[in-house]
Design a protein that fits this description.
The protein has helices at about 1-20, 230-235, 245-260; strands spanning about 20-25, 35, 45, 55, 60, 70-80, 85-95, 100-105, 115-125, 125-135, 145, 155-160, 170-175, 190-195, 205-210, 220-230. The chain is an alpha+beta fold. It is globular and about 45 Å long. The protein starts with a helix and ends with a helix.
């Protein structure tokens, strides 16, 4: 009996540890179909509510122009030298434009107009490419990946942001469908970027943002299973059933074993 309790307690601690690194997570399940703004933590950016972002069957759909939104983190994350954080999302593009525009970024606070780690998409032949620009500040340059991705296909995208000691030298790697969901270094980055804006980095991540850009440039897509964490493994894979559900399964198994011992 004592051995069984020890095993159960160990499973509890291990399961809690798996989720401990999460800074933000939203799979959009349980939301009503319709406007995303006002559901969960999501609030509108600015005054424009034209063409609201939509929830459709557990995914968020973003059009090529319209309302932008942000979701504040429950606790702002301090960007200390030597630390990293990771943003994961499942994306599916149905259209893109040749110039390209960004659809996902983060900001120091929910009310901030500083847009950092802007993930972009542009059309390329019969598919699209993803791009990255580090900030909305002065001098930032856009980096595009070379691999052409397919419209109408789900991709697991993971952005790794690395805080480097010193000014204007933070780095980022963007991964698409990583093959190793545990160790970042075992994957080949879709693209890599070093901060090159003359505008300095911020010291805090406070919100994750969704953007519907300009009609002539922006992509049309859906987003699901959006997460922010301090470990690559936490966001690299499409989330399985929650740890709470897994813990419940462990508890049921333990209860059945106790009954059998009786």
């Amino acid at each position: 009996m004592k051995k069984l309790l020890c095993i159960s307690f160990g499973l509890l601690v291990a399961t809690m540890g798996v989720r401990a690194a999460a800074l933000f997570a939203d799979n959009f399940n349980g939301y009503a179909n319709g406007d995303l703004a006002g559901q969960g933590p999501w609030v509108q950016n600015g005054a424009s509510a034209l063409t609201p972002a939509q929830v459709l069957n557990g995914r968020v759909t973003l059009g090529s122009s319209g309302q932008d939104l942000n979701a504040p983190l429950s606790s702002p994350f301090s960007l200390v030298d030597g630390t990293s954080f990771f943003i994961g999302a499942t994306i599916n593009l149905s259209a893109a434009n040749a110039t390209g525009d960004y659809f996902l970024h983060w900001s120091p606070a929910a009310s901030s107009t500083i847009f950092i780690s802007r993930v972009e998409a542009r059309s390329s032949g019969t598919g699209f490419q993803l791009g990255y620009v580090e900030t909305s500040g002065t001098g930032a340059s856009l980096t595009w990946g070379t691999q052409v991705l397919n419209f109408g296909q789900d991709y697991r995208m993971v952005l790794a942001y690395n805080v480097v000691a010193g000014a204007v030298d933070d780095t980022a790697n963007l991964y698409v469908d990583p093959t190793d969901n545990l160790v970042e270094g075992n994957n080949t980055a879709y693209l890599s970027d070093t901060w090159n804006s003359v505008t300095a980095e911020t010291t805090t991540m406070g919100a994750i943002n969704l953007r519907q850009g300009t009609l002539a440039n922006a992509p049309t897509l859906s987003i699901d299973n959006l997460g922010v964490a301090t470990t690559f493994a936490e966001v690299a894979a499409v989330p399985e059933p929650s740890s709470v559900s897994l813990l419940g399964g462990f508890g049921l198994l333990a209860w059945q074993m106790i009954r059998r011992r009786k």
